[in-house]
């Protein structure tokens, strides 16, 4: 029996792809070991080493393992974090990545913490990996096994009948939905969408959707009105920052609060970013990657509940980074 090693290079994050691969390899009669992060000098006798990378900045971990083991084992490396790094991987390791979804185990059945009922997203945002990895047309897995975390990338754009199918699968199996972590697209969200999902979403952490660009303002405001009865803490709105001028990003975050939601800010990063802060390409009037992190920290740690952003002071002996950078908007939380 051949031996395989599956490595989650993005540990401690839960890695659905690596878990499916582990089960699939066992069905192929491999003796499989699973490693959360670099196994070091263990498992050097593996015939096959599978490296799974969720985020691009964890790719150097996979590279170190591949260089150490490639002369003794076959190497597979894939995952969303590797999609934009094929050339870099080839240059560093002399190997090819497994690009995109791996059809061999994409629909592997098992009981996991996460699940996909569909893949793809028709919105095709320029900063998002999904349309490149999964496509801009939906593909479906009607026999999916429900799990606590539903990862579909655009639930509200799915055909109504398929949305109902997902809800019924959860109800029929008695599975409690804890999170729909990519959530709903405001431009496709209407009263019917709300009525279809509201019972299932009662146990979820929050209704998740996004206000990533100023052009989405009207759609998000309309969705907020439809969710008016939902508490603010249960309306978690992704708010991309760094992709528009500082003032525009600030105004979007303020609108989310004004309309009765809570912003979750994320600084835009290149799809092939390897973790070097000095190589983050800054746009508009953003002055540093650290400024973007401070902006996100202020909102994501609920500083906005206590004091205005221009009073935010992140570190000792450093001036407040937003005091003179923003036109003040008074928001009542």
Task: Outline the structure in words.
It is a single chain. With 333 residues, the chain is an alpha/beta fold. 27% of the residues lie in helices and 15% in strands. The model has no long low-confidence stretch (mean pLDDT 93). The chain is built from nine helices and twelve strands. Strands 2-1-3-4 form a four-stranded parallel β-sheet, sandwiched between helices. A three-stranded parallel β-sheet has the order 5-8-9, with no helix packed on it. A three-stranded parallel β-sheet has the order 10-11-12. Strand 10, helix 7 and strand 11 (235-241) form a beta-alpha-beta unit.
What structural class is derived from the secondary structure elements? Answer: alpha/beta
Which spans of ≥5 residues are poorly predicted at pLDDT below 50? none
Please estimate the helix content: 25-40%
**What strand line-up does the widest sheet have?**
2-1-3-4
Span between termini? 61 Å
Helix and strand sequence: EHEEHEHEEHEEHEHEHEHEH
CA-atom Rg in angstroms: 22 Å
